[in-house]
Structures are given as structure tokens and as C-alpha cells.
Amino acid sequence: MEGLADRLAAVRQRIACAAERAHRDPAGILLLAVTKVFPAAAILEAYDLGLRDFGENYVQEFEGKAPEVSALAGARFHLIGHLQSNKSAKAAELFQAIQTTDSAKLARRLNEAGRPLDVMIEVKLSDEEAKHGVDPAELPALITSVRACEHLKLRGLMTMPPWSEDPEAPRPVFRKLRELAAEHGLPELSMGMSNDLETAIEEGSTCVRVGTALFGRRKTP
Ligand SMILES: *Cc1c(COP(=O)(O)O)cnc(C)c1O
Predict the structure, then answer these.
(1) Is 220 inside any structural domain?
(2) CB 9 within 8 Å of CB 46
(3) Is residue 19 part of a domain?
């Protein structure tokens, strides 16, 4: 089996090719290594290969890994899974960035933690019942609420389209997210995963969240 170093090189190559096609500088596209379900050792190995940004989905799971990784110089941990407001204080302690802010209440609770946090707003752009995120109609009000929070720095928007085998399928969703961000003067777009990162980069992604293509298939817990 090929190792993480090879898979990382392949992912970087995919990012570079997509950026070139889109006439974009690949330096403007953050590779967020999604380490959910994998042990702290996976984060350490990726860190040794030069990765600095890591995405985790569950506060409790990351709490278990944090003692082994939180002191890594320059490492940044991003929460990319749904956050319940009763876990917001713990999340603010463990993470430097929260990509899944989706309500004014959650923003208020994160702000009350009193720690500087980069945040993104998760937008729901599909009708799937299971997906989290703010309805686009409520986005302007939520942006206003987040911008009023002194400890939160609003960086941009994040979305998670319905899963599809076809990497072209999410293109309209990615495009819509880009339009919404532009409307509100937000510079960052977290969109694109292992299967569709090229499409996302062509549509302006500044952060691709990649798990499987780096670490292999996740075992279901
Ligand atoms: C798991 C996950 C990813 C990574 O997905 P892959 O298809 O494994 O690259 C990205 N974003 C979110 C929000 C996730 O939950």
C-alpha cells in the first residue's frame, strides 16, 4: 500500500492542476487534512510531512487526541462537524477555527468563551434533511450577528453538498456559495473534498477538506 507521503504528493498535484486550469495561485488554496476517526498518530505523521491545518468533526473525539497534538508549533485545528451550543466552550478551547457556525445562538456562545476564533458560517444549499447549516435566506442576519461578536473573526462560508460519485454534481452548489460570499465581502470559501476538490477549486475554493485521499478509507466507528 502506498504511504501518506505519496498520497499527499498526489493530492498536492491535483490541487496544482486544478489551480492552473482555473488560473489561480495554488498558494491561495489551503489543504485541510481531515483526520476524523484516525488516531493522533495520523496527525503527527501528517505534521512531519509539512501539513499544518487539520479538520476534525467531533469535539469529544478531538478532546482525546488533543494532549498529543495541541503543542505542535504552528498547527491549527479546525472544527468542521456540527457543533451543539452546549459544547461551544470546549470547542473554543480546543480549536483555532470553527467552520460550522450556523446560528446566532452558537455564535454568541462561542464568543462568550472569550478566546479569539476564526469562524466560518456553514450554509445549507441542498434540501437533504440531515444536513446542517443556515438557510441562505437567514444568512445576512447571521453574518450581522457574527460580526458583532468581538472575539470572532468571520472569514468566510463553508458548505457540504450532498454526496455524489459525480465530481461535477456539486458545481452549482459551489458556485452559489461563491456568489453568497462575494455578496457579503467574505474572502474565504471552504468547499471541496477528496472526490470533488477540482470542481471546488475551479469555483473559487480557498480551503479543500481532504480525508480519504490522504488517509484512506475510514472505518465506520
Ligand atoms: C469527512 C469530511 C470531509 C472529508 O471527506 P473525504 O471525502 O474523506 O475527503 C470533509 N468535510 C467534512 C465536513 C467532513 O465531514
Answers:
(1) no
(2) no
(3) yes
- Binning the chain into helix, strand and coil, the percentages to the nearest 5 are 45, 20, 40
| Total domains in the fold of the chain | 1
Domain containing 21 equals: 4-215
- On whether residue 164 sits in a domain, the answer given is yes
CB atoms near residue 206 (< 10 Å):
19
Output the DSSP codes for 20-42.
Answer: HHTT--GGGSEEEEE-TTS-HHH
Q: Percent of the chain at pLDDT above 70?
A: 97
pLDDT of residue 129: 66
CATH number at residue 166: 3.20.20.10
Atom index in ligand 1 nearest the CA of residue 210 equals 9
Q: What is the pLDDT of residues 19-66, one digit of tens each?
A: 999 999 999 999 999 999 999 999 999 999 999 999 999 999 999 999
Which three cell numbers, joined as nine digits, stand for 91? Answer: 470547542
Ligand 1 within 6 A of CB of 139: no
Q: pLDDT tens, 166-214?
A: 999 999 999 999 999 999 999 999 999 999 999 999 999 999 999 999 9
Residue 221 in any domain: the answer is no
Dist CA 110 CA 113 (whole Å): 5
Residue owning grid cell 505542535? 72
Question: How many whole angstroms from 163 Cα to the centroid of ligand 1?
Answer: 10
7 ligand 1 Cβ < 6 A? no
| Residue 14 one-letter amino acid | R
Cβ 211 under 6 angstroms from ligand 1: yes
Please indicate whether residue 207, judged by its CB atom, sits closer than 6 Å to ligand 1.
no
